[in-house]
Amino acid sequence: MYDVAIVGAGPIGSFIGKEIASLGYNVIIFEEHSEIGNPSHCSGLFSTNIFDIVGKIGILHPAKKAVIYAPDGSKLRIGNDKVRGYVVDRVKFDRELAKMAGAKGAEIHLKERVKKVKYTDISTSKGEYKAKIIVGADGINSIVRKEMGIGAPKILGAAQIIAHSHLDEDTVEIFIGSSIAPGFFAWRIPLFDDLAKIGLASYKSSWLYLKKLMKKLKVQPLSISGGGIPINTVERTYARGMLIVGDAAGQVKATSGGGVYPGLMCAKCAIKAIKDALERGDYSENALKNYETCWRNGIGKELKYASYLHRLYTKFRDDEFNKIIKILNDEKVIKIINEEGDIDYPSKVAIKIFRKKPSLMKYLSIPARPYRKRI
Ligand SMILES: Cc1cc2nc3c(=O)[nH]c(=O)nc-3n(C[C@H](O)[C@H](O)[C@H](O)COP(=O)(O)OP(=O)(O)OC[C@H]3O[C@@H](n4cnc5c(N)ncnc54)[C@H](O)[C@@H]3O)c2cc1C
Predict the structure, then answer these.
(1) Is the Cβ atom of 186 under 6 angstroms away from ligand 1?
(2) Domain 2-302, CATH among 3.40.50.300, 2.40.50.140, 3.90.180.10, 3.50.50.60
(3) C-alpha distances in angstroms, 61 versus 48, 58, 83, 190?
């Protein structure tokens, strides 16, 4: 009998594994792939807050500035010399975290797919196991979530390429507009040398729109990847002896698609709830409910706000995007963004911008959308 079994050695599973194993508990982590972090679909732009939690791992270079392109080609330039985030080697990042978990004593089983979980039993492609607590950190198609009978979050399709495409190393580019990426946005992120990750997410075919963007930017793909971004949290994240965390629970910022910071913040709540449950020997639904209360009262508020902003965003037409960028292109607004903007907490800066530019208030109404009920 293991104390904790974790399904998935992504960043969230490995982080939880490391922290619980360092408390002296028996931890086993199952990863279906033969290598940690591979394949990776992530664009690897991480806020500085992430490194305060896990340490400075996998960093390629700092990101300080952003250029946001409106559909009409006009630009909004934000940022200055302050480091806002880092571009990471995502494979290395995931591997470093898994290595830390292993160093603290967590057993990591690679190439072992979890096929079924029924508290306290775990059935994998290689054998049968038992654990007092089972954690689903198994991404968007979480098997643990399915076994808990919880519905999936809404997923936005994403496509990305790596290509030769020169841009300043400390600058990322964002392209908005329903003709560019309906419902979301496209990005160009410098990697190293003259390589960049270029991708987008969309409610329509992301591949089709990415092909159009490739043509516009005159780039040829060296490699291609695809993935899914959850844009709402699921209705419940705990059951008797079981938890789901990270993408499995839809704990991703709907404004940016960034899931690593919110996933880690929720993982902290999971670690506390698991520790308390193991100390008391109480793995009941009631004991693990503290996990959900913790994250919903913490980063959950920001995720809810991000979902609200996302719903507004999906409504805008290209002419409205052009007008919004024009309104934001004001040195007082840019000063607010530069001084107070935090990638992980957009609500703080958004409220200040609305105060400075009341003309933006007219865009604050929510359309009826088919997925609205789930959020
Ligand atoms: C195109 C794209 C770009 C992104 N860019 C960013 C970004 O720039 N910044 C950011 O913060 N976030 C970004 N994200 C989101 C980010 O990648 C995720 O939020 C993050 O990886 C979630 O971590 P996780 O550990 O919850 O899940 P995952 O990273 O998905 O890890 C889950 C792990 O579980 C394993 N697994 C699944 N099922 C099983 C099973 N049955 N048995 C055993 N193992 C299993 C998988 O193989 C995987 O290793 C991006 C996502 C996409 C699609």
Answers:
(1) no
(2) 3.50.50.60
(3) 12, 10, 10, 9
